[in-house]
Amino acid sequence: MEETISNELLKILCCPETHQGLSLVQDSNIEKLNELQSCGKLTHRNGKAVNYRLSGALLREDGKVLYPIREGFPVMLIEESISGEILEN
C-alpha cells in the first residue's frame, strides 16, 4: 500500500477525544484489519460493523484507538473509531 497521509498532515492531526498524537498503522496490520472486516469481525467502538475496506489507519499514541482511513481520507469521528486492542490479537 502506498502512503495514504502526507507527513505534513500527520503532524497536525490528533485524536479528537484525547488530543494525543497519531501514527500510521503498518500495511501488514491493515491487511489483518481488512481480513477481519471481510469476515464481519471488525467493529467501530460504537459496536457497528465496519462496512468498508480500510486504505489505512491512524493509531493513537497510547495504542488504544484506531481511526480508519477510508479511500485515502482519515475518518476522525470518535464513534467510528476502532479499538486498538484488535491489533494485539
Would you write up a description of this structure?
The protein is of the alpha+beta class and 89 residues long. It has one domain (7-88). Helices cover 20% and strands 20% of the residues. It is built from 2 helices and 5 strands. The protein has helices spanning 7-12, 27-38, and strands at residues 22-24, 56-60, 65-70, 73-74, 82-83. Strands 1, 2, 3, 4 and 5 form a 5-stranded antiparallel beta sheet that branches. The longest helix is centred in the middle third of the chain and has 12 residues, at 27-38. The radius of gyration is 12 Å and the shape is globular.
Mean pLDDT reading = 92
Beta-strand portion reads 15-25%
Shape: globular
How many separate domains?
A: 1
CA gyration radius, whole angstroms: 12 Å
Name a few traits of the molecule.
5 strands, globular, 2 helices, 89 residues, five-stranded antiparallel sheet, 20% strand, alpha+beta, 20% helix
List the helices and strands and how they pair.
Layout lengths: L6 H6 L9 E3 L2 H12 L17 E5 L4 E6 L2 E2 L7 E2 L6
Antiparallel strand pairs: 1-2, 2-3, 3-4, 3-5
Short summary of the structure?
This protein is an alpha+beta fold. Helices cover 20% and strands 20% of the residues. Strands 1, 2, 3, 4 and 5 form a 5-stranded antiparallel β-sheet that branches.
